[in-house]
């Protein structure tokens, strides 16, 4: 996991460095500032992952995965609007993304972003739904603490350090989710930086 984190961090930093070296004497676009913020947030989040996976702390891991997916969705929003700089200005002023409309007149709700991005990355919808179940209190949390007992009509309860051992496949899936989210995010960022952009 440490190697994966290092690789992802270096990919973000290289994308940042390549953009800066290609932007000599060129003013930044307002959209660049959004991307720099997303990069920094993602680096901070990815650096927290190894310990959470090692400790099998699904209660912290899953919501932080959802936040990483959130960055990918917000980045994708810039592909859906007529004027990315206007969207960037909207966000920098503290306005909610879901109150901004795409080029087809649809509000940029999470549902809109998920359905649109799923056309290119089919894993996004399933991942989004599963991770939301860990952000909002749900049966996922209940059945982490409570399981069927060995005897008939009994249950076993374990919380904190006494919680039941989780299926290792859950953490294998988490690592695959990390790879998928950050690979797609970095690819979109690199593609964005290659496009001609309006300076404001």
Describe the structure.
There is one protein chain. β1 (146-148) and β2 (155-157) form a beta hairpin. The longest helix has 27 residues, at 168-194. This protein is 65% helix and 3% strand. The N and C termini lie far apart (40 Å). The protein is globular and about 70 Å long. It is mainly α and 200 residues long. The chain has eight helices and two strands; from the N terminus they run αααααααββα. A two-stranded antiparallel sheet has the order 1-2. α2 (30-54) packs across α4, α3 (58-77) packs across α6 (123-135) and α3 (58-77) runs parallel beside α8. It has one domain (2-129, 167-194). The chain has helices at residues 2-21, 30-54, 58-77, 84-92, 110-118, 123-135, 139-145, 168-194; strands at 146-148, 155-157.
